[in-house]
């Protein structure tokens, strides 16, 4: 066990926990932030995507000890009421089917737009290829990302 | 307006029920009502709710709560079912709250399928009860207003939650009338609206859980939390055909940090007569229970156990009141052996399931015979949310919550395994992170409950992705041979199909093209196996459509006909002069989707770089046709566009329906290209997404256009019908691109070069 200070969604948390614990389970089990999802545990599906200092990361494969003092943002912290342009675009396009992958999709998409406010189709493909949607909402995700990019203009 | 007797649904109209009373409104804050998100003007919560029936309560301020009866797995019934009721109730959608009803066979009768999500039958089965529930409540509101105003009930009209009496110019909201209306007699019969008068049905409404999803609210089984809850995981045998002998290192595991216990569980009581959905290869597993997911995961990986081979057995299973016998052979099975077995059986006589005319004679006098073999592998469902369940079992009662498609299918098993009567079990249905058929087999729910019973604490059982993929209820592996006999002028004289699989035949005896050919023969076989299989989005159709529609494409080409025209000619024959009486499709509606897709895709205006494939199929009472446009880029197929036409009768929520059709198309392309599970000595050869290739954004079609046939036919299935035909649309387009026919799925095993 080891002590960690984490900054999650602008709040500080102190934890005494095994250093190897993946951030995903710290968020879900210990901080009860269950918006970040488990899909594969091996960085293959993107369901667990969070931001670490604004960069999209797979929290299932990130041991808590590797976080350091970087700021963690989860889906719950992207915006409280779904006001982020990506979330609004998701609602406008009614993207989700089952919805399980969508927190990860949204976090990846939000990081993409931050770096690249005007992504091309192939930029979107490249950024989003690590996020599986078993329900097959890809065409809506792409359309929503483009709408969000427009909103930001 | 159609008059309709309400007695059909009588049993569900229990007043002041636990659900309708809000009494069990779920100690789970996110189960609380969801506001439709396309609305800004929010009514405050009412001071008092009045129960009208199992589906509905009305607040004193006019707010409506509709209980969505069936579990939601992404098909959007949680929005579309309430829309149906709201239409007949005649209320403003913005004043409707939606809650997921828990499992309640008294309130939603028709067990075990009263609250079943699967078989594309949800909307079809609830179409009438939901409209009656809405119309009955409206009738009771009218009766209350008539009594209050001392006027005749048929002088009262309604509009968007307001009752009017034209002559006296009186008006009153539903909320103000709800208290009295709830005490009115339930009408014996009600009037239902004509489709032309619909204001909600047919007008797209946003997903009622949309906001909760995009803000990461807890909605899914895996998100379930309860004070004092422990985490459980399971270790199942490493191979199909094996079972547990003993745990080798119990003490070592128990000593690991955060671990409470490790023990074997038996999912079924000895001699329990299983039901048709009690499919489960591993009735004995090892449970590991501890404080946190990571600790339990580490302990689970450290478990050492001795496994042994199963013995072959023949069991009697209760298939909804009819006993059937199922043989489970011993042994460790291999995909290569399955393929050889299927090939061998193909050459032998098999069970004839349909014969029209004289097929043998026709083949004898044929000028040309075309014969092709098709195959498809096992598929894993790979729901995005792995199997899981919460359970809190006390001495004589139980509370379970989690993702499942058919609570009525598993409840009897759960009660028997726990030895607690069904009435004492409370079952909450969480939003499912996908289902695709897998969650109709909810052994994991029983496992969770048994673990909770053993440790005497609330637990949440979670399968890892590896557990989920290697303890599957897979789509079976199939094989089919199609043969066509043509005369000198390329007329189709006869069709012959032989099909089989492990462990079931995929054949539908009376599906198209049966009925359109004078001489027709269909034969089938099945091979027993200990690898568990079950429903997977459009069972059996998901293989047969690909084989049949690829074959028809080839015959059309052979006879020099346009592939759509060729199919339409067969359908014309089936309509005007059908062969046989048992044909299970409507040739006119079938032709309708082909004609619509031909028009919408601009079929015929071909572009040299665009390779187009067409395919159509009927299943789950609905019709779907696709035109798929493909280009080859850097040697790889890229799907540019899919144009899709569907006839599923009245469409409740058009944009959500399109979303589901898009999903079916993407899912089908993904499985056609990449989907495959294989077995070696009983061991599934893939256990996570680094090995099991799933379709990703860059491989999805760039554009999907979905068109619905407009009609006033009662709604039928939609979750499954668009899926089966896409396989052949892919195959036929790939042929155009490469000159090579695709017979064996998956079509892309490695990054092989095309074109
Ligand atoms: S759960 Fe982390 S990438 Fe799949
Ligand atoms: S919406 Fe179901 S996995 Fe993406």
Fold topology:
The complex is a heterodimer of chains A (153) and B (755).
Chain A: E1 2-8, E2 11-17, H1 23-30, E3 49-52, E4 55-58, E5 71-73, H2 75-78, H3 85-92, H4 102-115, H5 121-128, H6 138-151
Parallel strand pairs in A: 1-5
Antiparallel strand pairs in A: 1-2, 3-4, 3-5
Chain B: E1 2-5, E2 49-53, E3 56-59, E4 64-68, H1 77-89, E5 96-100, H2 122-149, E6 156-159, E7 162-165, E8 170-173, H3 174-181, E9 189-192, H4 210-214, E10 230-235, E11 242-247, H5 250-254, E12 259-266, E13 284-290, H6 293-302, E14 305-309, E15 313-319, E16 322-328, H7 335-346, E17 351-356, H8 359-364, E18 368-376, E19 388-393, E20 398-402, H9 407-418, E21 425-429, H10 443-455, E22 459-462, H11 465-470, E23 477-486, E24 492-502, E25 519-526, H12 541-558, H13 563-576, H14 587-600, E26 611-619, E27 622-633, E28 636-647, H15 654-673, E29 679-680, E30 683-684, E31 703-708, H16 723-738
Parallel strand pairs in B: 4-5, 10-22, 20-21, 24-25, 28-31
Antiparallel strand pairs in B: 1-9, 2-3, 3-4, 6-7, 7-8, 10-13, 11-14, 12-13, 15-16, 17-25, 18-23, 19-20, 19-22, 23-24, 26-27, 27-28, 29-30
The structure holds FE2/S2 (inorganic) cluster (2 copies).
One FE2/S2 (inorganic) cluster (FES) sits between chains A (96-102, 133-135, 137) and B (74, 384, 434).
